[in-house]
Please model this.
Amino acid sequence: MFKKLLVANRGEIAVRVLRTAREMGIATVAVYSQADRKSPHVEMADEAVEIGPPPPIESYLNIERIIRAAQATGAEAIHPGYGFLAENASFAKACTEAGLIFVGPPADALRRVGDKLEARQLALSVGAPVIPGMIAVQPDVSAFKKEAQKIGYPVLIKATAGGGGKGMRVVSSPADLNAGLEAAMHESQTAFGDATVYLEKYIAEPRHIEMQILCDEHENAVWLGERECSIQRRHQKIIEESPSPVMTPKLRETMGQTAVMIAKAAGYRNAGTVEFLYEKGNYYFLEVNARLQVEHPVTELCTGLDLVALQLQIASGEPIPFTQEQVQPRGHAIECRIYAEDAAKDFLPSSGVIAALREPQGPGVRCDSSLREGMEISVHYDPILSKVITYGESRDEAIRRMRRALSDYVILGVATPISLLLDILRHPAFLSGELSTHFLDHHFADWKPPRPSETVQEMALIAATLARAGTRRGDGALSPKARPTPWQTIGHWEIAGS
Amino acid sequence: MKSEYIIEGNLRRVTLEKTRGGVQITVDGNPRSIHCEEMTSGHFVIEKDGAKFRLVVREIGDRTHVWVDGQTVVLERPKPEAFGIVGSSDSHLTAPMPGTLRKLLVTEGQIVEPKQTVAILEAMKMEHNLRAPRAGKVAKVFYKEGDVLEADATVLDLEPLEEEG
Model:
């Protein structure tokens, strides 16, 4: 096992990785941009290196500076977290060339699975079901027309270079195909500088089901169970759970084995996730996420495993310390992502200072965050504030626990979508497991944050007034509020000389 | 003590009065019988009609954010405080309309009683007596006789007397 690890990330995932590294007795190095100088991940690491101004391109995406930080501190390995450089083949290569261990797959495997079309080819090569479609990429309309006929309408046109819904068009009939192609290609050119599109069968009510896999350097590969991530808003996951309500043991084993086969064919190593779409008993390969994912805690709670520890073990050459038969997921886990977003303003990112914070606790409640009271939430980075994950013996218990945890969660100063999450967790379709990636479109298209009741408004008014008056006891003496202390009026201050 | 807030687009008024028996609260003139405990600063448990509420209050800029059992409510002040001093509007004496400060009848450091006339404002060809909203000590006077005042100008600040505790 290496003796020193650099974490090339920030926020909650950096804290997550640092915690496990500390538990394993590995010395730690954090890197930070100027905006993150006082962040919890900087405080938690044994050493910290400033790597540049706030914009990611000058800090967390700066390969040179990160490698130099590792060399300067004597770190032997780098964990990339998720996002930023986690799936960047150039970064993986640069680490290896600098004699550093990249905690993740080798650069060539990263490249292979990072290209959507190549990944699809890999899946086909091992006999994995893929969404029927056309792999070839020419703007040959007649070829597209023939293929669409073969697949059967409705079909989906997708941009090869893209994601997030851009360059996508659903075409329901042959008459609309030409117009759909033109529109998708034009949009893709504008958004990604590449008009290449491909065609596939349109799945009307897909469920997003992904399989966690682990591959070591001794040809061992295991699957650790699935996660269903169908509750998405604008293609962004907000609730994930394991197991999937539609999963059966047989299907799990089939999908698990398929995922492992695809990973092996790609020469994959370390932790990864294979994503599928599922509809009516059929599953189709979507893509490979060559990193540790945001929602990994859901799998950890169901398996009792520490995925970061396993990543570090695999990266240092150790074999996976258990067999497939020993993987026995049990119980149910749900994760809710808490974004800094204002549900009342169409989920615009919210920034500000965290004026009050009380994270949820209790049996079966896990809160992964990097927050502190008084901390400023800036606009430079991904607005994920925290993740709340609950575990229960049953799906019902996990849901009840999540509702209780979210209604105990105090955050003031930054808006969060907690009221939306609570409404989803009460909705009959969610409770009965009737999920698809269109869940929010179907059931929450017109949703607005609930108006506080008259009683709640009165309580808020009374409490606000009492706070101003500086009351100690509501039925005791009323004392005038003390003058603001210097700490409140001066604001940010520094010790002279720093 | 009076407070005004805008909540959900409506202007609401809360009063707190210290009485011999404790604290009397009214919301928009309606008396409210509650029991309240401040657990730590800004963190309250309020009981009303057998129902229990947990609240956390934080003033952020010119808004007051309140967490109530999982919901967040944001209150706004209808008017910014003239000099940013924490306290109710009872601790400032303001000119109700534009006019000339004809006479100033108190000096800094002087103790005044509730409703005592402290200044005379000449406006619209009439004289208006400005009276102290409550007992207190004149902390600071911001104008002198002959000054022309705008509406809402703070004429003087009152400090509470030391007997409360």
Remarks:
- Chain A touches chain B through 48 residues (CB under 8 Å).
- Chain A has 17 helices and 23 strands.
- Residues 207-443 of chain A form a domain with the D-amino Acid Aminotransferase; Chain A, domain 1 fold (CATH 3.30.470.20).
- Residues 471-498 of chain A have pLDDT under 50 and may be disordered.
